[in-house]
Amino acid sequence: MEAKLAAYRSKKRREAMVETAKNSIKEVLSWQRSSSPVEDKDDLESMISEESIDFSPPPPSILCSWTMCCLYLVLWVTMYIIAIQIEFGAVFFIISALIFIIVNTRSGPKKKGEVSAYSVFNPDCQSIDGTLKAEQFEREIRYGGLSVH
C-alpha cells in the first residue's frame, strides 16, 4: 500500500511540476499573471504531509513585472528605430500591433462558472451586466430613462 501511495504522490508531483512549467512559460510569453489553485483536497494534504522540495517558482513581484514590461518596451522601441532607419517602420508597427492583439487575446477555454458575453450560451439565457436588452430599451422609450433600475 505504501508503494502505491508513494507512486501516486510522485506521479502527482511530476504532473504539478509539468503544469507549473507550462504556466510559467505561458505567463512569460503572454504577460498574463495567473495562479492555479490546487483543486483536489487529497492532493493538497498529500503535498503538505510529504516532505518534498517545492519546485514552483515564487510569485512574481510587482518590480519584476514592471522590469519585464520596461525591457520589452525598450526592445520594441529599439527594433522600431531600426525598422524606421531601413524604411520599414509602418509595416513593423502594424505587424507588432497585430502580434500584440493576438498574444493578449484569450484563446483557451473559459473558466468554470464564467458567463459568456452571448446570453444564448449562458444558463437560463442570463445576460452580463451592461447589456442593452430589448425589454430595457422598450421601457426607456415608453417611460423615460429613469424607469430602468
Mean pLDDT: 78
Radius of gyration (CA) equals 24 Å
Q: Determine the structural class based on helices, strands and strand pairing.
A: mainly alpha
Model regions low in confidence, pLDDT < 50 over at least 5 residues? none
Instruction: Tell me the total number of β-strands.
Output: 0
Helix and strand sequence: HHHHH
Which bin fits the share of residues in helices? 55-70%
Strand content: under 5%
Principal-axis shape: flat
Give the N-terminus to C-terminus distance in angstroms.
62 Å
Characterize the biggest β-sheet: none
**What is the oligomer described by this structure?**
single chain
Number of helices: 5
Layout: helices, strands, pairs:
Elements (H helix, E strand, L loop, with lengths): L1 H29 L10 H9 L12 H24 L3 H15 L30 H10 L6
Helix pairs in contact: 3-4
What do these coordinates show?
The chain is mostly helical and about 150 residues long. The chain has five helices and no strands. Helix 3 packs antiparallel against helix 4. The longest helix is centred in the first third of the chain and has 29 residues. The chain is flat, with a radius of gyration of 24 Å.
